[in-house]
Amino acid sequence: MYWEFSRKSFQRSAAYRFDVWTRIAGNIMFLFMWGFIWYALYYGKETVGGVSFQAMLGYIMISQALQGIHGAGAQLWEIQERVRTGDIAMEMLRPYDYTTRMLFSDLGSIFFYFITAVLPLYTVLFLVLKPSVSLTLAQMGLFIVSAVLGFLIRFCIEMTFGLFTFWLIETGGVEDVFYFSISLFSGSLVPLWFFPGWLEQVAHYLPFQAIFFVPNSIFVGQLKGPDIFNALLGQAIWLLLCFVILRLVWHRASMKIVIQGG
Amino acid sequence: MSLIEVNHLYKEFQVAKRQAGLWGALRSLLRREYLTKTAVRDVSFAVNQGEMVGYVGPNGAGKSTTIKMLTGILVPTSGEIRVNNLIPYKERQKNARQIGVVFGQRTQLWWDLPTIESFELLKQVFQIPDHRYKQNMATFADILGLDEFLNTPVRQLSLGQRMRADIAASLLHDPLILFLDEPTIGLDVLAKERMRQFITEINRERGVTVILTTHDMSDIEKLCRRMILIDNGQVMYDGELVLIKDLFGKERVLIVDLEGETDSFSVAGAQLVKEEGNRKWLRFNRELTTASQLINRISEKYEIKDLTIKDTEIEEMIRHIYEKGLAVYEMNSCRIENNKF
Amino acid sequence: MVSIMRGIGLYSYMVGASIRAQLQYRYAFVMNILGWAMTYAGTAVTMWVLLYSFGALDGWIFWELIFLFALAVLSWGVCMIFFFHFRSLDQYIVNGTFDRFLVRPIHPFFHFMAMKFDVGAFGQFLFSIAAVGLAYSNLHLHWTWQWLVFLGAVIGGALIQGGLLVAISSVAFWTTRSERLYWVIMWPLKSLMNYPLSIYPRLVQLLVVFILPFAFVNYLPALILLGKTGRVFAPFWGALSPLVGAIFFALCFRFWMLGLDRYKSAGS
Ligand SMILES: Nc1ncnc2c1ncn2[C@@H]1O[C@H](COP(=O)(O)OP(=O)(O)OP(=O)(O)O)[C@@H](O)[C@H]1O
Ligand SMILES: [Mg+2]
């Protein structure tokens, strides 16, 4: 039944393909920007901290691709908007679980975005730019598992932050904390291994690194052997935790809707 | 010389043709095909100082488009407009000083500000002298009862309050002419009545010329002596309201909901114009048959569950004009006579 | 002259009203400002992390990079105050509320511009003034005449960025939608300029100097102000910011007026 929502949002994305193209255009521009930044940083250096430029290139490419995929789902501001306009309260009356429905809607639009934009474009980019990624099939499989886990974690966190709107009149600050954490601590722009030691420690104890940093590192071969499994286990624990928190917040929010009418 | 003169006015819009399917969408990215939609077609009329004119017609007739050209928002495709000797689209800012505009569908006030602040801002924008502003505010506050919500932000006003605020705002700078595009839309009966009284008063006491569009015929009946009827961008009738009421006012429509088998329904003295299952629309002439006669006749044969009697609606009038071949020039001639007095 | 004075008077009056409107939501007002400041501080932290292992980016050390970034943020703040709400012009056109600007006896561009005075921009000032100050002392700068260049860069930068906002908004006169363009053109371009221009390929450099002159917002003036030699363009180009800004803005304004003409003949 939830797949129906995926199908619907897939069709919606297809109807608004222009939006998809502009989004991918922006995504590619940022990829190039970060490519040149890292190129300039590496200029005249073979490896830094044991990482070559080619590996770094692979890192930002896969990071940018994943970010593109994540960006196709409902954004924080959209969730906040739904809370404010009372959309969520309306949907509470329907016979399904709201967060699950949102997840499946996201999957639909992401699938459209993935097959029509991200997959073809990044395949070409990888073939042309040839970053060094030495992936075995098994690693590829683990990368996909990790990327999916990362996606689910981000989904839970974003939903949770979005639901805070129920209690706050103004969400300006919440948004900024969220976006800052997502951009820095997730390792989406700068991998954690380039962080100053103490900051790296901090980042490791936050859930954000499980979103992009872990899958990216598996992809470029920075995580190997048993480390991969440890990282995956870490992701799974984070997911469980974020999921429980989301359910808790959701439960509270539903109570609030029922009692105070949103 | 009339205050407003419109001669052979045309307005055409280019509307992109939508093409079906994915292939069509791709093709339309490269080369779009346009359809020309004529919203206003050869419209001519003249309005004298102090007149109050109802501009009516069905949805999409071209009323708002005409108003927008008269106010200088839109440039006509061809034809002439003069508003107090100004060409609105050429001397838009000058024209703005002599007109007041209300679009009933959307406010022109500052959404986030207390209503009073919008008025103050307009005072600055129109450079309204202090004493005039104070006088006007006092008058409007009195008649329209603005006081109760002057300090409320516009976004929190009810529709009726907002409309009152909007019309007051449009009159602050003492315009010669007031354009009202559906000023009573969405208002309840009382609020409508209040609005009408206000408009009448403004017209009578200040001599403001009023042109208003509406879908509510009773607005026109209560306010205007003259009506311009427009359909499909063309003027169908322009003249005294009394005349057209004589022509069509005799006709009424009786809507009845019947019980039981009603397939071959008919009744003497009325014409069946429409039916939906057991609901029948019957047109009858008031002077030949009375409604009660008709109802009696029907109830002899059928059981009546419910009934309504309606005046002829605008759409109906337009259809009549087509059917009876009431030529526009005939109406024009009576308009010219009207203008003589 | 009289009309200029009246214009200024009217503008300040409307600005006052706009600020009062924003002050109605006190919490939002403060959060908006702090939010912006925090967002920029976040980018600055990212830059710091980026340079932690590498030391410099194409010869730009951390404080120089911060200066480059903060200069752009400062003029963006000035630009936001006056022009940020042009981003929502398409909303006005779609709901038909734009018509009101055409039934008033003042210039519609001026009227729209005076509609809002975005106080969120104080967040930009908060961040950028602090950042420029810190960079100034950490880099041991001692400006004299350079202050003029700095001022010119802020004004020119505001005009260049404001011009692009205006130009993008006017697309809505044709298509009724322009928000997306902001995200595809303005946003990437602004992000690009947070890093030294010299790291990008020639094509990009030519683009941001000669077509969408964002190089004059921060990179070129920063070369003069930090006493760097430009590998790409001579540093003195940076002094031309106000001139380039004025010309670019004038062009964008013409484009907006062109769009308005089209609106007046085609409607929304
Ligand atoms: N900007 C535009 N572009 C294309 N077509 C338009 C535009 N504005 C109006 N039209 C078309 O012109 C015709 C007249 O529209 P107008 O808004 O003047 O009608 P109206 O008489 O005011 O109707 P209503 O009673 O519904 O307000 C309509 O068919 C409308 O679709
Ligand atoms: Mg209309």
Describe what is shown at a glance:
The complex is a heterotrimer of chains A (262), B (341) and C (268). Chain A contains eleven helices and two strands, in the order ααββααααααααα. Chain A has helices spanning 3-15, 17-42, 53-71, 76-85, 87-92, 98-129, 137-163, 172-184, 197-204, 213-220, 225-260; strands at residues 47-48, 51-52.
In total, how many domains does the architecture of chain A comprise? 1
Structural class of chain A: mainly alpha
- Sheet-strand content of chain A, in percent, reads under 5%
Rounded to the nearest angstrom, the radius of gyration of chain A is 19 Å
The unique ligands bound to this protein are: adenosine-5'-triphosphate, magnesium ion
Which secondary-structure class do the elements of chain B indicate?
alpha/beta
Strand content of chain B: 25-35%
Largest sheet of chain B: 6 strands, mixed
* Largest sheet report of chain A: 2 strands, antiparallel
Could you report the average pLDDT of chain A, rounded to the nearest whole number? 87
| Relative helix content of chain A | over 70%
Q: How is the CATH topology of the largest domain in chain B named?
A: Rossmann fold
Spatial ordering of strands, largest sheet of chain B: 5-6-7-3-8-9
**CATH superfamily caption of the largest domain in chain B:** P-loop containing nucleotide triphosphate hydrolases
Mean pLDDT of chain B: 85
Topology as H/E string of chain A? Answer: HHEEHHHHHHHHH
How much is the radius of gyration of chain B in Å? Answer: 24 Å
Number of domains of chain B: 2
Word description of this protein:
The complex is a heterotrimer of chains A (about 260), B (about 350) and C (about 270). Chain A is mainly α and about 260 residues long. Chain A has one domain. Helices cover about 75% and strands about 0% of the residues of chain A. Chain A is built from eleven helices and two strands. In chain A, strands 1-2 form a two-stranded antiparallel ribbon. In chain A, β1 and β2 form a beta hairpin. In chain A, α1 (about 5-15) crosses α6 (about 100-130). The longest helix of chain A is centred in the last third of the chain and has 36 residues, at about 225-260. The radius of gyration of chain A is 19 Å and the shape is globular. The two termini of chain A are about 25 Å apart. The relative contact order of chain A is 0.13. Chain B is of the alpha/beta class. Chain B has two domains: about 5-245, Rossmann fold; about 250-310, 2-Layer Sandwich (Alpha-Beta Plaits), CATH 3.30.70. Chain B contains twelve helices and 13 strands. In chain B, the strands form three sheets. Chain B has a six-stranded mixed β-sheet with strand order 5-6-7-3-8-9, sandwiched between helices. A four-stranded antiparallel β-sheet of chain B has the order 11-12-10-13, covered by helices on one side. In chain B, β11 and β12 form a beta hairpin. In chain B, α5 runs antiparallel to α6 (about 160-170). Chain B is globular, with a radius of gyration of 24 Å. The two termini of chain B are about 15 Å apart. Mean pLDDT of chain B is about 85; it is low at about 325-340. Chain C has about 270 residues and is mainly α. Chain C has a two-stranded antiparallel sheet. In chain C, a hairpin with a 2-residue loop joins β1 (about 55) and β2 (about 60). The longest helix of chain C is centred in the N-terminal third of the chain and has 27 residues, at about 25-50. Chains in contact: A-C, B-C. The interface of B and C includes residues 73, 94, 110 and 153 of B. The complex binds adenosine-5'-triphosphate and magnesium ion. Magnesium ion (MG) binds near residues 63 and 64 of chain B. Adenosine-5'-triphosphate sits at the interface of chains B and C.
